[in-house]
Amino acid sequence: MPRALWTAWVWAVIILSTEGASDQASSLSCDPTGVCDGHSRSLNSIPSGLTAGVKSLDLSNNDITYVGNRDLQRCVNLKTLRLGANEIHTVEEDSFFHLRNLEYLDLSYNRLSNLSSSWFRSLYVLKFLNLLGNLYKTLGETSLFSHLPNLRTLKVGNSNSFTEIHEKDFTGLTFLEELEISAQNLQIYVPKSLKSIQNISHLILHLKQPILLVDILVDIVSSLDCFELRDTNLHTFHFSEASISEMSTSVKKLIFRNVQFTDESFVEVVKLFNYVSGILEVEFDDCTHDGIGDFRALSLDRIRHLGNVETLTIRKLHIPQFFLFHDLSSIYPLTGRVKRVTIENSKVFLVPCLLSQHLKSLEYLDLSENLMSEETLKNSACKDAWPFLQTLVLRQNRLKSLEKTGELLLTLENLNNLDISKNNFLSMPETCQWPGKMKQLNLSSTRIHSLTQCLPQTLEILDVSNNNLDSFSLILPQLKELYISRNKLKTLPDASFLPVLSVMRISRNIINTFSKEQLDSFQQLKTLEAGGNNFICSCDFLSFTQGQQALGRVLVDWPDDYRCDSPSHVRGQRVQDARLSLSECHRAAVVSAACCALFLLLLLTGVLCHRFHGLWYMKMMWAWLQAKRKPRKAPRRDICYDAFVSYSERDSYWVENLMVQELEHFNPPFKLCLHKRDFIPGKWIIDNIIDSIEKSHKTIFVLSENFVKSEWCKYELDFSHFRLFDENNDAAILILLEPIDKKAIPQRFCKLRKIMNTKTYLEWPVDETQQEGFWLNLRAAIRS
Questions:
Q1: What percent of the chain is predicted at pLDDT more than 70?
Q2: pLDDT at 624
Q3: Domains, the chain, ranges and CATH?
Q4: Where in the cell is it found?
């Protein structure tokens, strides 16, 4: 028994292990190219069953704690491995040994307390390595990256425990495109630790205090292109002029991101600009100036300019003591060489006139997302301000008058590019004044609803996208590029207004079609973006768009952004794929064919009616319908005649001289209704027939060859037949005056044929001895 229990326990463990591995493997989603996604799946280990077909594996944001030697040994073709944001604390020595094709490795934000160079000894082609956010204090006992000759991006360090950088740490690295070091609590930096890297394109350094900043700059200043300092408090920063005054420098750009300055440390940074002579561009992003701008008591007066800095960018600058700030006049002289200035989202409402006049080399000025208005712009664009300014960006400020804005900028004689988008102009005046060299104007997202002659005739590029325009009828003879997307235009502009237009972007309007003739009228048009409109996929439009093979060279967003809005059965389909039926595309031909068919049908109907007495049947039907509207049976008191006699006029002699004599002069006499004698004059003959039949007890039909040729006899027969069958009585009496061949009776006398087959009829005997019996039977039939 114990042995049986032991066997069952072993099988249960095996089954559970297999199910667990299967569940983890199924948590991955892999596409046919070998890209497998397993991020955020709550995995606690690397899934088993991975094969050589896996080329990219994302296991980030899970609960993996361990990477073993066998976990990835079959992934010999793996190029990308993401293991970031897990709980990995152990990586075995040969975990990545078989990944000889690996180019991207992310081990960031785990719990690695020790790093081993053996992990990377076979990763010769590795280009990207991220080790940020782990728990290690140093980069290992030996050179960690000496086996990575092709490494181009390296990220190391953490915000707490990483405190030391040693000379061996970066040995073996000669060129890096990007190096990011997170060392907020750096305490030890051994000189020349970064000097072994001969060329660094971009260095990002997270440093809380600037104590070791100058030592690091000394090592990298000759091998670095761009230096970015993040999350640093520079309150105590002091720049030593002797440190780099005699060294050649290659740094071209400095970036300060989330850095805090004081008035004193700002002066030290300005000194750095002077002594690192290669710096051409400086950027301050989300920085804080903890000062009041009082530089007069400092040594700033000994600095005449900002070195060789040509581009200055400031974004989201915070000045807590802004309302105590000085006029900055002491720094005005430093700005004379600056050519490009960007100050975004920093609550700037005024550029003092004196500062504008000192910016004598300025060619580009961007004051986007600030508080500039016409009143403050008047002071900023004063006389002699920005004398060489060519581009001015005032996007998303507080400008309201287009006319006044243009007038205030007349002092800028060299201005050719103006961006005043995202201001609330709402309307455009009929006339405006602009600087004489204006070539580019951006009025997008300004809520204007119409365009007028206010726009300068010298424009070459105009952007009026995202407004409320429903037409474009301006003549701009020099315009080369027009951006008018996201408006309410229903058609393309007239090409005669824009003779040299080469680029037009008119997507997201309500245009429903355009033709080959319209496009051909723009003789110099090379680029057209017209997608996202409500296209009516007519036959002409589809024929044009689908038949032009070269259309894709002009329509930059063709074919995906061109969708049908109607007809309904192709709505949502790409114009390129839409198909219409023959009837939709050749409607005139279809209508013509239908009309011809209808004409032939009417002609055929007429011929058939003539051949088969159709008109006769129609007349009879109308009379029959009239009869149907009358009461089915006349009341007894309304019966005026014993019998209505239906006969042909050609048989009148027999009726009037024989039958009338025998019946009306009999005792008691019968009262007969004859059309010659008893029909009411002036009344429609059909009504006379109907009324006479209705007021007669019986209807006598005198049948002969003449009878079947009489149209009125046919009416009388039909109305009598109506009574005979609809009222189920014996109202009809047939007298066969002469033998009639049933086959000779016309087809329209179908009811006569039916009556002769279903009712007994009286034959007029030629033998006079039998005639008395005939009259006797007739009288009996009338009385019945």
A1: 86
A2: 60
A3: 27-152 (3.80.10.10), 197-329 (3.80.10.10), 639-781 (3.40.50.10140)
A4: Membrane; Cytoplasmic vesicle, Phagosome membrane; Membrane raft
